[in-house]
Q: What sequence folds into this?
């Protein structure tokens, strides 16, 4: 009888241990595969997505004619210079001057954004995010919007010298953007100050070119970063590492 009882207890104990081991293995596997996602994970994932966004933006906009061939982001003449386009026939060689100025503006922007990566990376790294989950579930460009709202002034100050340097480079033939712009506005202003210009309602154009191109280039970079963020949010194949898969994978369950 004792042997029988011992056998029953042994069998019960054996299977209980086996079952416990299986449960432990299952739990362990779940933890290794990711488990709960912490706020620090969410923050790290969001910053990773933003860094990928700036790399993609610089690669696309910083290439030759990156701005010029992008219909949505191509930089046109400043609004203050619209009167130049309106009175183009009055300006000697006006259309050619406009074309050169526009091409130069976009070339300067493409050249300047090549220096943007470390500026943005620094801003992203130092950016404080209190609630990663709130931004993660906040919308298709919530992280980009968060970055822009908190770093735009800082980025403008850091980026402006890069733009100014590009404006002075001879990127199109033997002419810099500043020279192309000055040739255009000088020719226009010369006519604007005559009786003919007065009758046509022409007013002299005076634009801070560095400020204008800096704003346009920065805004374009944020548009591209937002595009990349949205891609990571909606397309699992765009999540190119384990961290992005873990963090943004949460969106697939919503």
A:
């Amino acid at each position: 009888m004792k042997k029988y009882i011992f056998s029953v207890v042994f069998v019960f104990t054996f299977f209980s241990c086996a079952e416990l081991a299986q449960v432990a293995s299952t739990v362990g596997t779940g933890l290794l595969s990711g488990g709960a996602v912490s706020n620090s994970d969410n923050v790290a994932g969001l910053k990773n997505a933003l860094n990928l966004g700036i790399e993609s933006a610089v690669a696309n906009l910083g290439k030759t004619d990156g701005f010029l061939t992008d219909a949505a982001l191509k930089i046109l003449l400043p609004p203050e210079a619209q009167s130049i386009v309106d009175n183009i026939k009055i300006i000697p060689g006006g259309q050619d001057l406009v074309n050169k100025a526009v091409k130069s503006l976009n070339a300067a922007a493409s050249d300047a954004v090549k220096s943007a990566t470390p500026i943005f990376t620094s801003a992203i790294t130092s950016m404080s995010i209190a609630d990663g989950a709130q931004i993660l579930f906040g919308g298709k460009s919530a992280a980009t919007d968060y970055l822009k709202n908190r770093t735009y002034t800082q980025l403008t100050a850091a980026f402006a010298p890069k733009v100014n340097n590009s404006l002075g480079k001879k990127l199109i033939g033997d002419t810099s953007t500043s020279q192309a712009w000055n040739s255009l506005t000088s020719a226009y202003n010369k006519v604007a100050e005559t009786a003919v210009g007065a009758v046509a309602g022409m007013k002299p154009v005076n634009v801070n070119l560095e400020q204008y191109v800096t704003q346009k280039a920065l805004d374009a970079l944020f548009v591209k970063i937002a595009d990349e963020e949205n891609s990571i949010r909606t397309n699992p194949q765009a999540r190119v590492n384990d961290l992005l898969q873990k963090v943004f994978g949460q969106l697939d369950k919503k």
DSSP finds eleven helices and no strands in the chain. Residues 2-32 form the longest helix (31 residues). The chain has two domains: 1-35, 37-253.
